[in-house]
Write a structure and sequence with these properties.
Elements (H helix, E strand, L loop, with lengths): L5 H6 L6 H8 L8 H9 L6 E2 L5 E2 L2 H17 L3 H12 L23 H8 L3 H9 L11 H14 L5 H21 L1 H4 L4 H34 L1
Antiparallel strand pairs: 1-2
Helix pairs in contact: 4-5, 6-8, 9-11
Length: 229
């Protein structure tokens, strides 16, 4: 992506880049990533402006909306649809009551694992987890989810064959590149502010990611065939 022009730098004075937003919010929300910010944008929680070069720029109001949405998610377990409706009422000049926690569900809440519980669930040695964190394959946190358990279990199986976390770090980097590719493909929709466009982008994003996975799997099978032939 080209560097912003002097005119763009002037017009975006006082606005924040994705990196600056993360720097301000990560102390409160350490699991917040640029991908999560893009997802919240797609879900209509926040609508950053775009420079002519396509860079996102967030205002102070955007920052506070993000802080509020993330707080409601973390502390009250509210779904984004409820948070979005609440913010829409505020935008319309109404004075809605703050949303409350969702009623109890028969679906159990996602389990959170402490470090020791994660190691036990995955059957992993502490050093393997340390290596996964130091190489960026996993992120250190107070509570790990089922996805972290699945990743660590896979690392345990790979480690038996001499494949270490540092060897699979590129897989995470590849996933980030896939997200960037999907974002580029959907940029005409993401630049629009109407709900229909954002809903369409939300539908298409996982479908495009799935197609990229299918292509990658085909390439991997073909390479394995060549190796074994």
């Amino acid at each position: 992506m080209p560097a912003p022009s002097p005119r763009e730098r002037s017009s975006s004075a006082g606005l924040l880049s994705i990196g600056q937003v993360l720097a301000r919010l990560n102390p409160e929300f350490p699991n917040l990533t640029s991908s999560k910010l893009r997802f919240l944008e797609v879900q209509g929680i926040v609508t950053p402006t775009r420079t002519e070069s396509g860079y996102r720029k967030f205002s102070q109001d955007d920052l506070e909306r993000l802080r509020l949405a993330l707080t409601l998610q973390r502390d009250h377990y509210l779904p984004l649809v409820v948070i979005r409706e609440y913010l829409a009422d505020v935008d319309a000049g109404r004075d809605p009551a703050p949303p409350t926690a969702a009623p109890p569900s028969i679906v159990p809440a996602p389990r959170r694992y402490r470090r020791e519980e994660l190691l036990a669930a995955a059957g992993a040695a502490p050093q393997l987890l340390n290596d996964a964190i130091s190489t960026g394959v996993l992120t250190a946190t107070d509570g790990y989810n089922d996805q972290a358990v699945a990743i660590l279990r896979a690392l345990v199986a790979l480690d038996r064959h001499g494949i270490e976390p540092r060897h699979v770090r590129t897989l995470r980097q590849s996933a980030e590149r896939d997200v960037a590719l999907v974002e580029s493909a959907l940029s005409p929709l993401l630049r629009r502010t109407d709900a229909a466009s954002r809903a369409r982008a939300s539908e298409l994003a996982p479908e495009l990611a799935k197609r990229l996975d299918e292509v990658r799997a085909i390439f991997a099978r073909a390479a394995l065939d060549r190796m074994l032939s």
